[in-house]
Design a protein that fits this description.
The chain is α+β, with helices and mostly antiparallel strands. 29% of the residues lie in helices and 30% in strands. The structure holds adenosine-5'-triphosphate and magnesium ion.
Length: 384
């Protein structure tokens, strides 16, 4: 529904929530944020802010009662409260059921297996001791990957185990899964959108380059430097996943393109995604507007093709800097054509904290990469 008076509630007030609110403001849509932190990024631009815990049943239920449409910017929310809101007739996207599957990496992997969605071989374990026993029994051989089932983000719940020492020092506690180490050629992500009427539209695949230490995406290119047949296959796979999960709104599907040319789904996120930030500046329809269209059951924007090439870099807090933030070199970077700086409104920086991003648009990926290199070496997030 296109309505400038309906109330859209968003669980989580980080940068994804902030950029959703900014997109909503283009259409005078009213946005309300629930987040534990007063002054969080989205609180600075939303229509109304409620301080509270999106993991707490009562907080989410109370927040949702007077909203018309409820969505999220983070998966780790209280889904029992969302289910209660659904039963009260509220529009909730993504659904509590889809969120329950996605926020547990074990259930997510089982879902892919059940739906014949290609994914790396895996096994679930009650805890790290059970995993160690499987290693001792010869069922899992190094190297392989261990992931915690819940509460992982930004690579924090992932351990790549290569040596016997890693088994002693790197193993993560609690319920987990072991996963075969994929022989990765390129990591890509495809963002799909689906509305309740069943229309699905995908954005072109983006290529993700990771920061070696922080395990955060640092550098992102669109179009991805992969064969066009694989690109088409990746978009079709993302459509298959969003239809299978029956998510309304966005679903970002992270995939590995292996050296043998196979696509494996790594994981999916039912919300705007870091890999889609460039669309604000490089596509006719941004991922944030697409999310709003999808959750409000409006026609999806067909303008997902890029108007040119784009490179996105995350602005991470410099190592060794903690405290009130200062951005060095921004003016020099803005002197370059096609440089778009987006800051998230976080007052304090800390090492590797995501403080903002920069999208660089150009006619070709090579030209955009050259400018991105300049931005990377000149724009620094430091403390005052
Ligand atoms: N099976 C695998 N084989 C090889 N590398 C892997 C595998 N699983 C994960 N990785 C590496 O670890 C990274 C983080 O894994 P994953 O995306 O599952 O975790 P995450 O904590 O949810 O990360 P994020 O929040 O950054 O998306 C991947 O992008 C990839 O580089
Ligand atoms: Mg990931």
């Amino acid at each position: 529904m296109f309505s400038t008076t309906q109330k859209i509630g968003i669980l989580g007030g980080g940068q994804l929530g902030k950029m959703c609110c900014l997109a909503a403001a283009d259409w005078d849509f009213k946005t309300y944020i629930l987040d534990p932190t007063a002054g969080c990024p989205a609180s600075q631009v939303c229509t109304g802010f409620t301080q509270g815990d999106f993991k707490n049943y009562d907080d989410v239920l109370a927040f949702g009662r007077d909203k018309d449409v409820i969505t999220i910017e983070i998966e780790h929310v209280n889904t029992d409260a969302l289910r209660a809101l659904e039963q009260m007739g509220k529009v909730v996207h993504p659904s509590a059921t889809a969120l329950d599957t996605i926020k547990d990496k074990g259930l997510q992997k089982l879902f892919y297996q059940e739906h014949q969605i290609p994914t790396a071989h895996f096994e679930l374990f009650d805890d790290e001791q059970a995993l160690l026993a499987a290693v001792e029994a010869g069922r899992w051989n190094l190297p392989f990957v261990q992931k915690t089932r819940t509460a992982g983000y930004d690579g924090k719940g992932v351990a790549i185990l290569r040596t016997r020492d890693d088994l002693k020092n790197k193993l993560l506690p609690g319920p987990c899964l072991a996963e075969a180490l994929a022989d990765i050629q390129t990591e890509i992500a495809v963002i799909a959108a689906k509305n309740p009427s069943g229309q699905v539209v995908t954005f072109p695949a983006v290529e993700m380059d990771f920061h070696p230490e922080a395990n955060l995406v640092e550098f992102l290119l669109c179009p991805a430097r992969i064969p066009s047949l694989i690109e088409a296959e990746a978009e079709a796979l993302a459509e298959q996943v969003i239809r299978a999960l029956d998510v309304c709104g966005l679903l970002a599907v992270e995939m590995f393109l292996t050296k043998s040319g196979e696509l494996l789904v790594n994981e999916s996120a039912p919300r705007p995604h870091n890999s889609g930030h460039h669309t604000i500046d490089s596509a006719v329809t941004s991922q944030f507007q697409q999310h709003l269209r999808a959750i409000c059951d409006l026609p999806l924007g067909a303008g997902t093709q890029l108007t040119g090439a784009a490179v996105m870099i995350n602005l991470l807090g410099e190592d060794g800097h903690q405290g009130p933030v200062n951005y060095l070199g921004a003016a020099e970077c803005l002197a370059l054509e096609g440089v778009h700086i987006h800051l998230y409104g976080k007052a304090q920086t800390s090492p590797f904290r995501k403080m903002g991003h920069v999208s660089i648009t150009a006619d070709t990926v090579e030209a955009a990469v050259a400018k991105a290199d300049f931005v990377r070496s000149h724009l620094k997030v430091v403390s005052k």
